[in-house]
Amino acid sequence: IAAAVDIWARGPAALPPPRQPRTPVLPVEGERNVLITSALPYVNNVPHLGNIIGCVLSADTFARYCRLRNWNTLFVCGTDEYGTATETRALEEGLSPQELCDRYHAVHADVYAWFRISFDHFGRTTTPQQTRIAQDIFQRLLARGFLLQDTLEQLRCESCGRYLADRFVEGTCPFCGYAEARGDQCDKCGKLINAVELKNPQCKVCRGTPLVTPTQHLFLDLPKLEGRLEAWLEHTLATGDWTANARHITRTWLRDGLKPRCITRDLAWGTPVPLDGFRDKVFYVWFDAPIGYLSITANYTDQWERWWKNPQQ
Fold it and tell me: Model confidence at 159, in pLDDT bands (50, 70, 90)?
């Protein structure tokens, strides 16, 4: 506070000269380097004030503060474009998923530009870099024994010739009897649903009756990481600034024991799985989407690893 008062008393002439912008922004030895990301908005709708206020505006405010401090700052974001939400909206609008993504990515970019959000780069997840990096991470996990194969029972529509993701199924809620429950949740009673539990299930596309069919999937072997994660958390929770809510949720997961997590889906729209026996599947969006932060940076600069694999700076 005393330093701030002193600078204020001496006036603008006492301030250091503003940092000259460089393209691309890369980490600099001996300086404070700050990488800022904002939650990737889904591309299947027009952003509203809640999207802006919920994450984008706060990140933008912090980015502007960092630049005023003359810290070397990179601020990236982009649209999250894979997953069943995109497929569902594309069907509703009579577009291909790629056409829908192209349309709404442009809408998002225009809205954020109108609000003068100071992204250094606003990208998207449907890029060759996303495919390359996601598949590389997958291959590393596979080589190190962190993946499992197991069978899931899923609803398959023979008329459409495909397995149905949760959002492509409607039926009667097994808990409250609501007749228009989705394959993932009942909007009346609020309970989460496994799609195969629905009574009188219907395919949303053709209104046919799907059948429960077994299918092979790949799982992230999270129990194998539990010990290392607990040791890391003990150190991080003691030295970091986690919220009470984040601490509670994380400890609850560990208390109950981590479970294998499915990372593949029987869909056409997504990053392809590069493994024999699974090449007709794509990565589950919650495996794929966080990698978007890396790939968006990689589309900004081919030296992206200097930001993402550089803990010393």
Answer: confident
CA 37-86-289 angle, to 5 degrees, is: 30
Domain boundaries, the chain: 22-143+285-309, 155-212
Which class is domain 155-212?
Answer: mainly beta
Three-class secondary structure of residue 28 per DSSP: coil
Query: What CATH homologous superfamily does 22-143+285-309 map to?
Result: HUPs (3.40.50.620)
Q: What is the average per-residue pLDDT within 84-109?
A: 92
Q: Which of 60-64, 121-125, 266-270 has the lowest mean pLDDT?
A: 266-270
Strand partners, 282: 265, 272
- Three-state DSSP state, 121: strand
| 183 within 8 A of 155, measured Cβ to Cβ | yes
DSSP H or E segment with residue 27: none
Question: Tokens 């912090």 correspond to what residue?
Answer: 62
| Strand, coil or helix: 185 | strand
> What 8-state DSSP symbol labels residue 105?
H
| Mean pLDDT value of segment 232-240 | 88
**Nearest of 150, 165, 152, 153 to residue 212 by alpha carbon:** 153
